[in-house]
Amino acid sequence: MKLSIIGGTGKLGYGLAKRFAKLEKNVMIGSRDKNKALAKAKEINDKLMTSHVQGDDLVAAADWGDLVFLTVPFSAQLDTVKQIKDILVGKILIDTTVPLITENPTIQSDRVTSTAEDIDKLIGENSKLVSGFHTISHTVLTNLEKEIDSDVLLCGNDDEAVKLVADLVEELGANPIHVGDLKNARVLERLTPMIIGINKRYNKRHIGIKITGIK
Question: Is this prediction's pTM over 0.90?
Fold first, then answer.
């Protein structure tokens, strides 16, 4: 399975690329700046002594992958999806973006619906959307010596698509939790600024969430 990470030059996308490359998954980093994508791919390949990571522009990367992770900043989210939505037909898109307020990312935005629901309408019924990874710190992902000891919360309207992403989460050594349909992305997206605030308050960088009582 080929994994494309759109926005893979950013913190979360880079961490995911490293984790998947360690598992010897075929990964392509996509960026508006192809040279930046190539540089990040080389950086990971050199560190892990592998050749599993490639880089290209975001359109080529989206076309290449079977599963496409969207890890761009919120300000670039809709514009990026508009550029690749026709390429996403028949694919699963995993949206990790959050509507953070740039001036203070600990403050909740005044949105009624989730940005994931907006994307779902944009890409249409021929693509499957899974929303998740909002509560995992990029510092944990980037540090390959550190286990992911918090749960990875996932939601989506297609159970098979969520299950496929959950299987990938398990390969990362983490515990996936299917938290419901896509409307619950309204909750997931609001968890991120809360966690950022908790990290600041307690002077941490790796606080996560665990769901108890399932096992």
Answer: yes
Q: What is d(CA 20, CA 76) in angstroms, rounded to the nearest whole number?
A: 24
Q: Mean pLDDT over all residues of the chain?
A: 95
Q: What phi and psi, each to the nearest 5 degrees, are found at residue 4?
A: -100, 135
Work out whether strand 151-156 and strand 92-95 pair parallel, antiparallel, or are unpaired. unpaired
N-to-C CA span, the chain: 29
Helices 34-48, 11-22: axis angle to 10 degrees equals 40
175-190: pLDDT as tens digits? 999 999 999 999 999 9
213: left (phi over 0), alpha (psi -120 to 50) or beta: left
Q: Write the burial class of residue 127 (CB in 10 Å: 0-12 exposed, 13-18 middle, 19+ buried).
A: buried
- CA dist 173 and 192 (Å) reads 21
Q: Is 90:53 a contact under the CB 8 Å cutoff?
A: no
Task: Evaluate whether 211 touches 177 at the Cβ level (below 8 Å).
Answer: yes
Backbone angles phi, psi at 147, to 5 degrees: -75, 150
State which amino acid sits at residue 135.
T
> Shortest CA distance to 183 belongs to which of 141, 131, 134?
131
Query: Rg of the chain over CA atoms, in angstroms?
Result: 16
